[in-house]
Amino acid sequence: MSIADKTAAAQKINQFLAGIINHGGFRLKYRISVDPPPPNEWDNPEILVEFAGPDSPLLLEHGAEVLRSIEQLTLEAIHAGQDDHDKVLFDCKGFRSARVAELRMLAEVAATKVRESQEPFHFVPMSSRERRLVHLALKQEEDLRTESEGEARERHVVVCPKDYVAPASGSSTRNRRFQMLN
Questions:
Q1: pLDDT digits (tens, 9 = 90+) for 62-105
Q2: Which domains does the chain have, with CATH numbers?
Q3: In the predicted model, what is the mean pLDDT of residues 24-47?
Q4: Distances (CA, A) of 63 to 33, 78, 122, 151
Q5: Cα distance between residue 179 and residue 13, in whole Å
Q6: Which letter does DSSP use for residue 34 in this model?
Q7: What is the pTM (predicted TM-score) of this model?
Q8: Is 162 helix (H, G, I), strand (E, B) or coil?
Q9: In angstroms, rounded to a whole number, what is the distance separating the alpha carbons of residues 84 and 50?
Q10: DSSP assignment, residue 96?
Q11: How many CA atoms within 13 Å lie on the side-chain side of 2?
């Protein structure tokens, strides 16, 4: 299903979540908003799902692993295309806005370290949405560049000086891949 029909997508999300909440025995309530005001300056979802209730802390444990899992399962259940994933945002107790602020701060710290050392800074692996936020946070920094490296669950952001060239022996994934092809 395309998110082009937002009302129909919201109804399918509601049906799916009702089943998860009821059968999972969760003590949660949720609100689904179509075309909500943006929760922060970098996210502009077309559908926002906000959770509240006694089991909210469960959703937020381990870096909101359960919240992210429910979001992913829901996107799969409604057959959202890959291009539609950024159009739907799940949140609980303002976690996403806090995470945006945290990523912005981490990007600033990484920028400072790269400027001081003139060496690349590798973030820990993160979701495509979070990688995008780091790229956006550093987009205006003319003396730096950002790249995503790694595959699947190991994909992460690397911040480098703009003109940085990896050493010939290279430890980056791209250099190893290039060497393997030659």
A1: 989 999 999 999 999 999 888 888 889 999 999 988 998 999 99
A2: 6-93 (3.30.300.20), 99-181 (3.30.1370.50)
A3: 90
A4: 24, 24, 19, 21
A5: 46
A6: E
A7: 0.75
A8: coil
A9: 18
A10: H
A11: 2
